[in-house]
Structure formats: structure tokens, C-alpha cells
Amino acid sequence: MLFHPYSDTIHFDASLYYFVGIFDIYDREETKGEELACFNPNDRKDRETLIAKYCLDPYKKLSYRHRYKLIENLSIALNTQNFNFHSYFEDDPDKCSTMAWDETEIADPRGFFADIYRLANEAWRDDLEKAGLEDQSTW
Questions:
Q1: Domain ranges within the chain, ordered by starting residue
Q2: What's the DSSP call for residue 29?
């Protein structure tokens, strides 16, 4: 069983929120919110900058196995017709969550995640290959 980074008891949930949760600006609107407001998530160049800087494990906490599981789940989602990518950009006041851009501001949420998939496969290529050679049932 694969555990959360830095834990030997919490199971790792390879949710797609790992990629975009960093855009949650709740109670940081004047700092992180202003920083992210400089980017247009619908502009190709801005989107690639956002993904490279924020989405692809910016704090280097994930092992090659964690990265593999995230990409595996993202691949499944991208291959699922009518998958609700919008939901990952929705604010959730019950959880004190405010996204930098809500689901109505992202013109193509599926495209956003497809770009994450493409760029992660490039950036994490060696890690993904290494994990792909292992027997994942032993994790």
C-alpha cells in the first residue's frame, strides 16, 4: 500500500486535486491570490507556466511512485467520457476553499488537465518509467 508522503499510516489518495489544489487561495487572497491573478489560465503560455511552477510537485514532496499513481489516475479521468473536471475548480465554502479561478472562468477544464498530463509526462518521464517497471501491487 502506498502511503502519503512522510507518513507510514495514511493511505495515499492520488486525487486530481493534488494538481490544482495549490490554486486554493482561501484566506490568502491578498498574497497568493494576487500572485495568481497575473495569469490567465485560458492562455496557453500562462497555463504552461502555471502548471510547471505550481502543479508539478513544486515542493518536491512526491516520490516517483506517487507521481506514477497521480498520472495513472489522471489518465483514467482523461479517458472517461463526461468526467467532471469542472468540480476541481469549484469553491467549497463548507471546506473554506476558494480557488483562484472558479469553474466558470476556466474555458476548458479538461484541456487544463490534459496539459497537466502532457507536461507531467515530460517533466516526470524518468520517474514514470522507473515506477512503470516495478510491480505496483507491492506498493
A1: 24-134
A2: I
Burial zone of 68 (CB within 10 Å; 0-12 exposed, 13-18 middle, 19+ buried): buried
Dig out the grid coordinates for 21 from the structure. 489544489
Task: Tell me: pLDDT of 12 over 90.
Answer: yes
Q: In degrees rounded to 5, what are phi and psi of residue 24?
A: -75, 120
CB atoms within 10 A of CB 17: 13
Within 10 A of 107 (CB to CB), how many other CB atoms are there?
10
Mean pLDDT of the chain, nearest integer: 94
pTM of the model: 0.92
Task: Name the grid cell of 126.
Answer: 524518468
Strand, helix or coil at 16? coil
Question: Which of 71, 75, 55 has its CA nearest to residue 129?
Answer: 71
Q: How far apart are CA 63 and CA 109, in angstroms?
A: 26
